[in-house]
């Protein structure tokens, strides 16, 4: 067994006053695995998808892009309790990160979209988000010669349809993965990647049972689980979770377990955005999912571990978008509907 506790070595190290990161614990069949770097198979499609990702002309106002609510400078989220949509609409739910979202079992908190392609059509036509329609979005793109040429190069088709739009956005999103976190380095055998404190935090996280739901490559994202397993979760947010999709009462308040990758960057937490800090989120999770009350010192260790899950953020060059033509319909930033 690789995980052998080495009391003599450790005692000697402690006696010598040396802090020995990782000495007492090595990775051994851990329930979390490292994130592989993204494999780009079609760079031209990814580049087009990146343009669409940043293009606010896919919204009625001409002002809101995917990046407005999933800001890639801020961990792929908006860091707001709930998002702001068209006409300053108060969004119903917290915006999850798009980083590593290709690893999710399904998309959205309730999993109502099966994959990234299906998801990408949602916000464009959502009256509370980009407030456009697929037809108007496609007309807009077809009116821009730069896009026409680029879609033709990538898809070998003369006419753009929503299917190519969502294919390209999904291809770009698949590249938004965050490898090389310090925790992944530790998983791969770099004993110095974590401090003693962080490792103790991981041990608490693992051995308290957090890994029952937060596991796998994304430390979550791979199942739907009850929010408030041991103790009910109190919230004013009306979202009912997975039941909205399955219609089954048993799924009430089941939500997709969020990924904890980059969780340091994606505050505030939970579907209602009610927890402002990781300390608060960890306390709540311990209590309502596991019936456990962590001491402040234990909580701080778990938080220290969670911060080691921040990986390399996607390095992007801002795309320059093709200009509108004289025929491109003009945006309606102040339309009330
Ligand atoms: C007005 C804010 C807003 C805009 C604009 C927006 N989103 Fe989102 N996005 C959200 C919110 C809020 C959710 C969660 C909704 C839910 O689960 O019901 C979400 C969910 C997602 C998810 C699912 C992530 C997960 O873990 O389940 C993906 C992927 C995503 N958006 C991609 C996009 C793309 C692509 C665009 C542009 C076409 C976009 N979003 C535009 C707010 C926004
Ligand atoms: C029974 C399954 C389960 C267990 C056990 C569990 N979680 Fe969660 N966790 C969830 C679900 C589901 C959510 C999302 C709930 C929501 O927002 O409604 C969540 C959300 C979180 C979030 C917020 C992430 C975000 O982006 O909003 C953090 C942080 C977190 N969990 C940490 C932990 C820690 C630490 C433990 C152990 C003390 C733990 N979880 C145990 C299922 C679980």
UniProtKB/TrEMBL annotation:
Subcellular location: Periplasm
Keywords assigned by UniProt, alphabetized: Heme, Iron, Metal-binding, Oxidoreductase, Periplasm, Peroxidase, Signal
Sequence ranges of Basic and acidic residues compositional bias: 327-337
Entry-linked PANTHER family: CYTOCHROME C PEROXIDASE-RELATED (PTHR30600)
Transmembrane segments: none
Official protein name in the record: Cytochrome-c peroxidase
Cytochrome c domain mapped to chain residues: 44-152, 196-310
Signal sequence interval, chain numbering: 1-24
Molecular function terms from GO: peroxidase activity
Pfam families given in the database record: CCP_MauG, Cytochrom_C
InterPro entries (UniProt xref): Cyt_c-like_dom, Cyt_c-like_dom_sf, Cytochrome_c_Peroxidase/MauG, Di-haem_cyt_c_peroxidsae, MauG/Cytc_peroxidase
UniProt-annotated stretches for the region Disordered: 315-337
């Amino acid at each position: 067994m690789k995980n052998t506790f080495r009391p003599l070595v450790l005692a000697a190290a402690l006696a010598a006053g040396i802090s020995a990161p990782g000495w007492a614990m090595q990775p051994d069949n851990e329930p979390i695995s490292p994130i592989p770097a993204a494999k780009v198979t079609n760079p031209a499609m990814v580049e087009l998808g990146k343009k669409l990702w940043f293009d606010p002309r896919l919204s009625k106002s001409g002002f809101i892009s995917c990046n407005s609510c999933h800001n890639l400078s801020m961990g792929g989220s908006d860091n707001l309790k709930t998002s702001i949509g068209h006409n300053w609409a108060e969004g119903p739910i917290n915006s999850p990160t798009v980083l590593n979202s290709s690893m999710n079992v399904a998309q959205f908190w309730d999993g109502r979209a099966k994959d990234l392609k299906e998801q990408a059509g949602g916000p464009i036509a959502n009256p509370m988000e980009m407030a456009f329609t697929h037809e108007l979005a496609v007309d807009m793109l077809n009116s821009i010669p730069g896009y026409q040429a680029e879609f033709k190069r990538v898809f070998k088709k003369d006419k753009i349809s929503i299917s190519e739009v969502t294919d390209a956005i999904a291809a770009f999103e698949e590249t938004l993965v965050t490898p090389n976190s310090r925790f992944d380095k530790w998983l791969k055998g770099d004993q110095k990647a974590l401090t003693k404190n962080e490792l103790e935090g991981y041990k608490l996280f693992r051995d308290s049972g957090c890994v029952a739901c937060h596991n796998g490559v994304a430390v979550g994202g791979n199942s739907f689980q009850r929010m408030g397993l041991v103790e009910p979760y109190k919230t004013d947010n009306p979202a009912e979770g997975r039941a909205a999709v399955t219609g089954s009462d048993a799924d009430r308040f089941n939500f997709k377990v969020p990924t904890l990758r980059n969780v340091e960057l994606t505050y505030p937490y939970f579907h209602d955005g009610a927890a402002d800090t990781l300390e608060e989120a960890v306390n709540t999770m311990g209590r309502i999912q596991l019936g456990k009350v962590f001491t402040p010192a234990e909580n701080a260790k778990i938080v220290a571990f969670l911060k080691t899950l921040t990986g390399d953020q996607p390095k992007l060059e801002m795309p320059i978008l093709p200009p509108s033509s004289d025929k491109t319909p003009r945006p309606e930033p102040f339309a009330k509907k």
